[in-house]
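Lab meeting, action items carried over

1. Structure of the two-component assembly. Owner: GW. Status: complete.
Input record:
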Amino acid sequence: MKGLLKNQFYGALGSAVILLLFFLAIGVGLVISGNSLLLNIYVVVSSAAFAFNAVSGFRKEASSKWNKYELSIPVTRNQIVKSRFVSHAIWVFSGIILSALFVLITLAVHGNMYFYYPVRDPLMLFSCGMGIALLMGSIFYPLIYFLGTDKNEIIMIISLLGSVGATMGIFWLLNAANDFQRLSDSEFYLVVAVYLAIVLITYMLSYFFTTFIYQKKEV
Amino acid sequence: MSNILELKNVSKKYSNSSFVLDNITFSLPYGSIMGYVGENGAGKTTTIGCILNTLSKDSGTIHLFGKEMNDKNPLLREDIGVVYDGDNFPGYLNAEKLANVMRELYQQWDDSLFDRQLANFKLNKKQKIRTYSKGMTMKLAIAVAISHHPKLLVLDEATGGLDPIMREEILDIFLDFVQDENHSILLSSHITSDLEKVADYITMIHDGKIILSARKDDLIYKYAVMRCTAEQFSKLNKSDMLAYRSKDYQIDVLVSDKNTAARKFKNIVIDTVSIDEIMLLLVKGDRE
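Predicted assembly:
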């Protein structure tokens, strides 16, 4: 599987470098300006944006016969799908690390003028960023294996909108369960934990479902 | 002689096409090259897809090295090198990065052999694959296929679209590969002249059915075509002919034993026959 991950890394490298430079520039802008809105957007968007590195590699591979070729090398279809999900998670966490770095620098430079609750607020932001990015993968991979790489663009859009919608829906349901009352610390952490658990379970279920689809796929 | 590859009654239907791969049966002995010939759409790639498990067969058995290959035993693929027509590898890689990937995938990956192949083929390790010409792409695919020390090479139209000089070079590599009697090659192609040069066996497929599988030497030295007039043709027994095809002033009749035909039909012109002509007679002519 290491070879598959390496190949996916090479495939993502071109767009990843551009994205990294872009987010470094925005990060520097954030540190200089100390803008609160920019900080919130930066945290939520960076994970999802880095997740695009993983999914964008699909189209590049599809332009060759690699998808067919990789079935002739000593790996199982399960390992191929697993490598996609592992690669996706690695890119998501790279986005989180990058945004966390710039949030810390911004806090060090400007002090904490961003978070009313110093733990709850950043935890919510990073959880949403990670959740949206992982849910995006949960939607993208089964769909791309089922519908094919020629529908890459529309599947990417569906994945992004679907993951944002799912996140909003999950939080609405969790708040509705509490009658939209103000949450105590323990209730808040429970809500975030439930959200992350839903995200991780969905991600794992999506992996199994994608493997099931790919086992039957003719290439 | 044992076989490196055996297909028995392999059938495959597509849900969205009327094409059917129908009871394909052939075997490839160790130490030999089999040319798998047929026109476009005859079923060559579908057969190879079934062999390599990229397509699922509906029925029949396929044994590679005596074992049935499925997704659960990928180690069997250590011993198989594959070359598809066209772009086998993603264009964002170069040969060096491709080696980095393959080194992690194949236990027997041989960097020095790969480097020698690249030097042989005059391929630049740093050049992006997307900038390769078709010939360079095929050479790289062959270099990769050989560099993990496979026992079986499966080549799907690997020489198609290459110029004659490049094809000659690649055919020499194939001949060199089968010097080891544990090595074999299944080479699908519609360029029969290539197969005449290197193949030990020829298997012909048409409309999803095997129409001929024989030793190449038998085809070249035993098979023949009788050039008959209509009157001569009317006197032939159907059992004497494999296929026949009417031309303007003659009827060409394919026979499997030139000497027997020469003894039996002394007044008919009998010519040796090329693989191309055999294929034409079997595909375009009427078969008995």
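2. GW to write a short summary for the group page. Key points so far: Chain A touches chain B through 30 residues (CB under 8 Å). Chain A has one domain: 2-216.
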